[in-house]
Amino acid sequence: MQKQPTVNALISPEGSLEILSNHEVSRLKDRSEGGLYQLFRQCALAVLNTGAETDDTKDLMEAYADFDIRLVPQPRGLKLEVVNAPAIAFVDGEMLRAIREHLFSVLRDIVYSNTISTSVVGFRKDNPEDLTNLIFHILRNARALQAGRSPDLVVCWGGHSISREEYSYSKEVGHQLGLRGLSICTGCGPGAMKGPMKGATIGHAKQRVKNGRYIGITEPGIIGAEAPNPIVNELVIMPDIEKRLEAFVRAGHGIIVFPGGVGTAEEILYLLGLLLHPDNADIPFPVVFTGLKENAEYFEMIDRFIRNALGDKAAEKYEIIIDDPVRVAQTMKKGIAEVETFRRAMQDAYHFNWMLKIDPVFQLPFEPTHESMLSLELHRDQPVHMIAANLRKAFSGIVAGNVKEEGIKQVEARGPFEISGDPVLLAPLEEMLAAFVAQNRMKLPGSTAYIPSYRIVSGGY
């Protein structure tokens, strides 16, 4: 990407976190591997780049290599100094209020998530209960959990690289959800993450909904490729992709999936892997796949892939609705009403789905490397949730190779990630990936031609 004009500025807090301890300030200034400076700088630059057309974290970091962000202690709290920040974040020399809020949300979440995991006695990064509690505390600290509020949060997943027509459709679905008083949570980026939020703002305005929520949940590795869109009014940064995914299903009350690429496929496999767990069989959780008439073939392909990999039982966990935003919204409204009835009967919280069972394989972070990608267990001789978990990891690795700085560097240095396994699983996988490439779902339109970050190889099965 081309570097745009830059601005130097001193920024006062907006929304949260005016006070930090000396230890927290020291960690944020620490540029060593164990410090938080590089993480803070990367996320802050992504937020300041909101509105720019890029989905390549490495390109963003290289284009603004001279960007710096510094903590400036003040008698009454804390300010941030930005040096060579993208001018797109400013109007007449003043930082946009939304971006200022997001900037301090970055500070809040990075400090908190890295403090609680090291300060809580007995906290274990491999303990499922501890990980779920960490997610709860991060969301609560961000004030994303509102006790007493009736269930109304629809999580919308879908691609950042979609056509104008698909974007308009996602916006109309959001409009219909907003007319029914439902709020929106997405991955906070462009495309199908922005459309539902934008549509919901109009629906909320028509119904005079004053407390509509537009929550964006992201993580450091992806935020540079999917900077928060301008509609997001609550930004939360989870430590990694696994905690981001768990935050979606714990905080949300239903999920709508629009057409997307490998990131969307990863989310689908994560969700189905959870819903197929026997302990979750009776927990209501509405899931709708939807798109235009032109997307019918896309969802037929997704459905075939799911049935082949996970069985027909997995397909019972979602409903496919084509080109009918009103029916999508009505289905979601009805499903969320069932969620409310169930949670009231079970005395479970409306704001956080404590009852949902999540196997540790879906919680522990997966680090995509050439070795870990090649060693994935992609075969049928394992429980169905493990098939979903390993396929999810394969898609996660491709996402890393496509848009995450570390993944891009690995692919540049050693070539594409190799994926091996049972041809019965890999043939449909290769077909779907080829379709994503052909439909320009791997990269934003207008960016450089997509070069695959993966290669399917014979697994000897």
Question: Overview of this structure, please?
Answer:
With 461 residues, the chain is an alpha/beta fold. The chain has 3 domains: 6-99, 2-Layer Sandwich (MCP/YpsA-like), CATH 3.30.1850.10; 135-360, 3-Layer(aba) Sandwich (Rossmann fold); 365-456, no CATH class. It contains 17 helices and 14 strands. The chain has a 7-stranded parallel β-sheet with strand order 9-8-7-6-10-11-12, sandwiched between helices. A 3-stranded antiparallel β-sheet has the order 1-3-2. The chain has a two-stranded antiparallel ribbon with strand order 4-5. The termini are far apart. The relative contact order is 0.11.
Write the layout of secondary structure elements.
Layout: E1 6-11, H1 22-29, H2 37-48, H3 57-63, E2 68-74, E3 77-86, E4 90-91, E5 94-95, H4 97-119, H5 128-141, E6 153-157, H6 164-179, E7 183-186, H7 195-206, E8 214-218, H8 220-223, E9 234-237, H9 241-251, E10 254-257, H10 262-275, E11 287-291, H11 296-310, H12 312-315, E12 319-322, H13 325-346, H14 370-374, H15 384-403, H16 405-414, E13 417-421, H17 423-438, E14 454-458
Parallel strand pairs: 6-7, 6-10, 7-8, 8-9, 10-11, 11-12, 13-14
Antiparallel strand pairs: 1-3, 2-3, 4-5
Helix pairs in contact: 2-4, 3-16, 5-9, 6-7, 6-13, 10-15, 11-17, 15-16
